[in-house]
Design brief:
Layout (H helix, E strand, L loop, with lengths): L15 E3 L4 E6 L7 E11 L3 E7 L2 H4 L4 E5 L6 E17 L5 E10 L3 H14 E4 L20 H7 L17
Antiparallel strand pairs: 1-3, 1-8, 2-3, 2-5, 3-4, 4-7, 5-6, 6-7
């Protein structure tokens, strides 16, 4: 066991938070030809590989539908025909009237180059910021930190050996 190296699990895609108002819709082909559409709920976070969204628990929303759609009601931009696999679906909270709020995490499946372009465009238009990874140190992605390229910051906060001392220079007041 000592010689066996631990496998490091990393995310393939950066996750982004999305502006308020973005919704997920589920589609199922109807009998007559018009698809049935169910409004699920807001997107929690999204990446090019998948997303997480919340919804109110109901019988229609619990069933597995083949496709979903992502959109912003205030905008005409919408990403349709996204096939997905459900990774997890768990209860987040329970309201006083007995209804449950659930969180569903999905992985995008059968992503074509056009669909990847549309998802990337959606992220560029409606995302707010990157979500930092909260994993343990060896498992975390390394990102360059602009603070360490600043000469004044690096002289104040650089690591020293045990015998070295930190030297501060005082600026003269004008």
């Amino acid at each position: 066991m000592l010689g066996k190296k631990l496998e490091v699990r990393r995310r393939k895609w950066k996750r982004y938070t999305v502006k308020g108002g973005s919704l997920v819709y589920l589609y199922k082909e109807g009998i007559i030809g018009k698809p049935n559409r169910i409004e699920m709920g807001p997107i929690v976070d999204i990446s090019l590989g998948g997303m997480a969204f919340q919804y109110m628990d109901s019988k229609k929303r619990q069933t597995e539908w083949p496709q979903l759609s992502i959109g912003m009601p205030s905008s005409d931009f919408q990403v349709d025909g996204v096939y997905y696999d459900t990774i997890s679906d768990f209860e987040v909270a329970r309201l006083p009237d007995g209804k449950a709020i659930r969180n569903r995490c999905v992985r995008f499946d059968r992503v074509t180059p056009y669909l990847a372009y549309r998802l990337e465009e959606f992220i560029k238009r409606f995302s707010m910021r990157i979500i930092e990874d909260r994993r343990k140190n060896p498992d975390r992605r390394r990102r360059p930190d602009p603070r360490f390229h600043d000469q004044e910051y690096s002289t104040l906060y650089e690591r020293r050996n045990s015998g070295e001392r930190r030297v501060f220079t005082l600026k003269k007041a004008k």
